[in-house]
Amino acid sequence: MKIAFDAKRYFHNSSGLGNYSRTLVNGLMSRYASEIEFNLLDKPKKAFPWWRSYGMGTVASKWGANIFHGLSNELPFDLPKSIKTVVTIHDVLFKSRPNDYPFFDSLIYDFKTNYALKRADLIIATSDFTAAEIKKYYASEVEKYYYNKKLKIKVLYQSISTKYISNSWCPNSKMPYFIYHSSFVSRKNHVNLIKAFSSVCHLLPHNLILAGKGNLESELIQLVEDLKLNDRIIFYHFPSDSELEKLLVESSGFIYPSFSEGFGIPIVEAATIGIPMAVSNIPVFQELMNDVESVIWFDPLSLNEIANSILALTNLKSMNYSSIITKVDENNISKQYLDLYQSLL
């Protein structure tokens, strides 16, 4: 079985989509090298900018691929019909939260996703929530052009690197802090978190660490300066893997106030370490954490609820996240992918 992968995110993305691509492909390679021949396709240096859309499919065909897997919401337009196709849809936030995206970017994402859903023999969604969103925004459009075609959506959670499982929570009692690891973009809701923390930080010794990168970073830094919290809120611009692991392990708690997500890999990473959590009560988080007791839930729109959750987080101890860890077990998920690939041939 020869499988070609769109490996742009695998090689060039250090956050969510890249982590998904690397964990999935590396997990399959380590377990099923005898069953699968892999080809990780990346745009050649001198190729045209649109090579992923027109060019990558031809390369996969000449290599002799039986299956092509688009790891991030799209498939090339030049794939022969003889090649079976799989596409992973991580989210359709450009449809549900269009104001978070530049107008023309949204149009491009929508066009590519729409085509991928029509072309794919199998659609993988990274959560039940994302599967429901795909059906909400695209089912009628797909059926309009492909009569009697059913959206074949399989939900497979994103597995995580086993490096996190080897760690255990050991909070720094001398310099306690809470951590939020996420991109600095509007839907991640850093502004409300900073404002809520400013209202209660005088009641606790904990600092707040914001780790990540994104286009709102300078705006958030300015907000912290305006609130005179430079000594209480610390920014880590794109920490390395080892730095992030250390920050997570030694934190007193993890806060995730996002307005909307397709999955939420930082929650799973924190869960494997055993960190107490306060998270927004959005559907996908409730899906992931529905069997976990003692999680602190809050409305991400409410500064008061976020502030109270920060205070409540100081009283939580290590928690049992076994239900989440089972859902993202790498062995189990790799085997499910292998079975799905084999079912297409």
Q: Your description of this structure?
A:
This protein is α/β, with parallel strands linked by helices and 345 residues long. Helices cover 43% and strands 16% of the residues. It is built from 15 helices and twelve strands. It has helices spanning 8-12, 16-32, 56-63, 93-96, 103-119, 128-145, 162-165, 190-200, 217-226, 241-249, 265-273, 283-289, 303-313, 322-327, 330-343; strands at 2-6, 37-41, 67-70, 84-89, 122-125, 153-155, 177-181, 207-212, 233-237, 253-256, 277-280, 296-298. The chain has a six-stranded parallel β-sheet. A six-stranded parallel β-sheet has the order 9-8-7-10-11-12, sandwiched between helices. Helix 2 (16-32) packs across helix 15 (330-343) and helix 8 packs across helix 13 (303-313). The chain is globular and about 65 Å long.
Summarize the biggest pleated sheet.
6 strands, parallel
Helix content: 40-55%
CATH-assigned fold name of the largest domain? Rossmann fold
Number of strands: 12
- Which series of helices and strands comes N to C? EHHEHEEHHEHEHEHEHEHEHEHEHHH
- The CATH architecture name of the largest domain reads 3-Layer(aba) Sandwich
Q: Please report the first level of CATH classification, the CATH class of the largest domain.
A: Alpha Beta
* Rg, alpha carbons: 21 Å
Order of strands across the main sheet = 2-1-3-4-5-6
The geometry reads as: globular
